[in-house]
Model the fold of this input.
Amino acid sequence: SRDRQIVVSAGRGFRRSYNSFRCPRRMTAIVRTALALVWLIVLIGAGVFIGGRLQVSGDLRKFMPSAETPAQRLLLDELGEGPGSRLLLMSVSGAEAETLAAQSQRIAQRLAANDRFSLVANGGENALDAIPEHLRPYRYLLSPTLDAQRIDEAYLRDELDARVQDLGSPVAALIEPLLPSDPTLETLRVAEALQPANAPQRLHGVWFDNTGREALLAIETRAAGFDPTGQQAAVDAIRTAFGAARGDSGTTMVLTGPGAFSVEIGGRTQRESAWIGMVDSIGLILLLLIAYRSWRTPLFGVLPLASAGLAGLGAVALLFDGVHGITIAFGFTLIGVVQDYPIHLFSHQRAGISPWANARAIWPTLATGVVSTCIAYVTFLFSGVDGLQQLAVFTIAGLGVAALTTRLLLPALIDPVQQGFEHGDIAASPRIAMLWKAIARVPRPRAWQLASLAALGIAIVAFAPGAFWQNDLSKLTPVPAAALAQDAHLREAIGAPDVRYLLAVRGARTEEALQRVEALHPKLDALVQRKVIAGYDSVARVLPSAATQRARQATLPPPDRLRAALDAAVATTPLRSDVFEDFLADVERARIAAPLTARDLAGTPLATRVGGLLLENEDHATALISMTGLTDPSAVAHAVAAPGVELLDLKTASESLVVAYRERVLLALAIAALLLAATVLLALRAPRRALRVLLPMALTTLIVLAVLRGCGVELTLCHLVALILAAGPGLG
Done:
C-alpha cells in the first residue's frame, strides 16, 4: 500500500511537471509559426515589388559573346535583327498542284492580314502592290531606264505603239489601268526589279519547287530572330492559317527557319525541364519527409531557397537593364544547391543543443562552401557575355542570402525540444547507421590508384584523335539533321540567298554607301555572266543613291516640252493626248521632288527590302549585298576589291567569335581555380586537408573530359559552360 501511494504521488508530480512544460512549449510553437508567417509575408511583398519592376528579356544575343570585329558585329546584328533570322520557309504538299496552289493563296491572304508578319510571299502577290500609290511618281527616279534613255518624241512614239499592240493582246486587262498614268510601263520595270534574284517556278500563279509537288511560301516575321515569344506567336499563327486552309484535304506542312527551330527546341526543352524539375522536387520532398519525419522541416527549408531566388532577381534588376528568361530558369536551377544549407543545419541538430549554437558551429564549413561555389561563378563575370554575367550575379547573390538566412533566421524556427525529445537524433537512426557501415566497407582507392587514373585521363585527353575544340556554331544546335536537311531543301527551292557570304559596303554616310554599291553593279553583273554567282540582291536596286536620282531627274523634260513630245507621239496612234494628264503630272512631280530616302519608305513593303540590306548608324552606314549560287568566294573578293568593300565570311566570323570567347572564359576559369584553392587552403589551414577537398572535383572533371574525348566528342562552348555550372555545386 505504501509503495502504491509512492507511485501515485510520483505520477501526479510528473503530470504537473509535464503540463507546466507543455504550455510554454505550445506558446513557443505559436511564436515560431508566427515568425515563419512573417518571413513568408516579407518574401511575398518583396516578390510583388521586384516583379512589378522586373523587365524580362528574350533576346538570345545576351548569351552571345561581345563582338570585336566588323564581321562579328554584323553577324550578331544579322542573327538578331536581320531578315535572315526572321525568315521562315514553308512548303505545303500532299495533294494535286491546283489544290496546293489554292491553299497557298488562302494561307498567304490570312497571314498578310496579320500584324505579326512584315512579308508574306508565295509568287501570287501583285508586284504592283509593293509600290504604294503615293510613291509611284518616283518610278522615274527608281527605274534605270533613264540612265540610257531620254523621254522624247521618238521614245514615246515607240512606247505608245507597243501599248496599242498590248491592248489587243491577252495582257490588255493588266495594261489598260496603267496606261493613262504610265504609258512607258516604268512601274512594271520597277516591280520586276523588286522580285527575288532567283525566284522559283510558278504553277497556278504561285511558287512551286522544281518537281511541282510542293507549294512554297517565304514569310518574314516582325519579331526578331532572338525573340522566342514573338517567334512562338508567329509560328502559332502560321499553323492556325494552315489548319484553316487545309480543311480535310490531308495536306502536310513543313516549316523551317531560325524562328521555327527556336520554337521547337524551346518547347522540347521546356517540357523536359518541367518533367525533370517535377520529379526532382517530389523526390526531394519525400526524402526530407522520410529523413526528418516532420512536415515542418521541408516547409521551413523552402524559406531560404525562396529568399535566395528573390535576392538573385533583385540583384540582377538593380545592376542590369533587364533580366533574361534563361537567367531566371538557370539561376533557380543553380541556387537549388542552397537547399543543402538548411539540411546541414537540420542534420546537425542534436537534443539539448541550441539551434543558434548549432548554426554557429557549422557556419565556418558552410561559409567556406558558399565562397568556393561563388568563386566558380565569378568566372562568368569576366566572360564578356551579358547573360552569363546576369547568371553570375543572380547565383552569387542568391547563395549569399541563402547562407545568411540559414545562419541568422532559420534557427529561430527550429524546436530543439521536439527535434530531440519527440523524434530523437537523426544521426541515431539504425537504418542510417547500417547504411554508413555499408559505405565504410567499400574499399578506398589508394594514392597510386588515383594517380594512375589521373595519368590515364590526361593521356586520353592529350592524345585522343580528332580536334580538341569544336568552333563551328552550327554543331552546337540541337536541331535534328532531318530538319536541317529540310531547311536546306527549301532554301534551294525558293532561291534564298547564301547565308554564309555577304558583301558589306561601308560608308561614312548612307549616300556614300549607296554610291559604292552602285559602282559594284557592273562587276557583279560580270560575275553573273561568268557563272561565279547565280544572282545578287542589292539595296541600290530598290533605293538608288541621291546622286543617281538627281541625274535621272535632270533628264526629265519640263512640262511644255514633254507635252509637245507627247502630242506629236500620240498623233500617230489611235489614242487621245488628253488621256495622259496623269502621266504628265507624275513626270513633273518626279522632276521637282526631293530624292527618295529610306525614311520615306517607312510603313511600305519597300521598307522591308531596304531595312534588310541597309544598316544605318549614327557614325556610318553599311549596305549589304546578298548572293545566290556562289561558287568561288576568292573570285568574288578579287572582283569587288575596292575601298569600303569587304566580302564577309560569317562562318569564319562566328568561329573567331567562339575562339575569343573560349579563351576569355578559360583564362577566367584558371584564375577562379587559383582563388578557389587559396580559399580552401585558408579555411582549412592544412595543405593535406585542402588537397582532399579539391582532389575529388579535379579528378571528376578530368575523368569526364577523358570519357568525352575517348568517345570522339569535340568539346564545345556548351561543354565549357556546363563544366563551370557543375563545378559550382560540386565544390559547395
Notes: The CA atoms of residues 169 and 175 lie 10 Å apart. The first helix runs from residue 2 to 53. The two ends are 65 Å apart (CA to CA). The longest strand covers residues 214-221.
